[in-house]
Amino acid sequence: MHIPPQRFALTLLALLLAACAKHQPEDLTADLEGGVEVRQGAIVISGVTLEQETGSVIDALVGRVPNFRVQRLSDGCPQIRLRSHVSFESVTNPHVYVDGTRIADTCILDSLRAQNVELVEIYPMGVTTRPGYGTHAHGLILVFLRSG
What we know:
alpha+beta; Ferric Hydroxamate Uptake Protein, Chain A, domain 1; 7-stranded mixed beta sheet
């Protein structure tokens, strides 16, 4: 019996879609150590945790966020890696947004004091359901400042 390649591909796609539709995560929220939560694919650090930090936002993230790696260069902005399988050999920085505005580089994370931040959301896969934010293959870091 010979199955045309197009029919095989469509059948395989239908099976994959059916399997994905059946799979529903049991718990979309989980607590990690150090005041970090996972919510619907985002790693979230609240202001309550951040207000206890005396350093920069980037310092507050190191050691709290799984697979968050920083390489500091003497003459430039820190290079950030959110997923462990990507190397520093090429630029892999996530896109950084502060209060909805896309920032050109990661230097802002070194200059913002953690105490001035209300919330940080990190999307290692680079996709958020928040309106107004793009996607990026190397992840997203959304920073929301305290008002007032």
